Amino acid sequence: AKKCPLSMVKQIIRPKKYESIDEIKHFIEKNMNKEIEMNGAEIGNEEYIRIISQKWFNDQIINYYLQLIKKYAKEVFNTKVYVFSTYFFPSLQSKGVEVVKKWIEHLGIFDYQFLFFPIHNNSHWSFVTVNLKENDEIEYWDSLDSSYTQSFKIENPETEDLPNGMSYRIWTIIRPILLLLRAERFRLKKQLYTTKITKIRCPQQPNGIDCGLYVCLFARGRICGKTMPYRIRTYELRLKLCYEIMVGEIVYDFDHQFNEPIH
């Protein structure tokens, strides 16, 4: 068999993994005007400033980074993830399941292992995952309200009242998602399950601005099966997240730390 000449072999060049804070900051500063787009999520100067200036994450940042995680999950772990836009859940709450269920009929959601729902509710970001390979098990991640783990089982969300021990706020998030999944299963004549819902014990943010960052980290950890440490260097994580957005790829290991701490 003939060998392809080296000039014909497509080389995959991975983005550089900077180990110096100064180097990664220099790269970011040089690329602050870079505009990028992925699956409808657009990022530009405003988003970069938000990320590195310790500001609250907007929809574009969350949507873009979760698309990177979706790509990373497939390439590294061969895990199929469907990521719903941050704009999906508000529509589900306001328009109701009967309207929104028509939007997902073409998606083939049961061909995926995970569904990711970034949730924006009352000026706060939280995160919901659905594990479709585990009987639609739902996990709720919240950096302001998940200091301990709780589990619930729901047989029929159409008739059940607020589950004993679950806060009304969380139920108003989980119930529409449950009803949507149930409607799609019913349409496809798939088995209906008693659904396990778990409010995950997870690290709590130390301020009022990092909820979006935590959502990105929860999603990343869920894919690689690792838990965030309870004490994190948020500015370092923001730098890495900004860099990964700029280069369009997850570059750093989940538990990576720079060689020198930020003072």
UniProtKB/TrEMBL annotation:
The keyword Hydrolase applies. Residues 41-222 form the Ubiquitin-like protease family profile domain. The keyword Transmembrane does not apply. Coiled coil: none annotated. GO terms for cellular component: nucleus. One of its GO terms (molecular function) is deSUMOylase activity. It comes from the Eukaryota. It holds the Pfam family Peptidase_C48. Transmembrane segments: none annotated. Keywords: Hydrolase, Protease, Thiol protease. GO terms for biological process: protein desumoylation; proteolysis. Belongs to the peptidase C48 family. This is Protease, Ulp1 family.
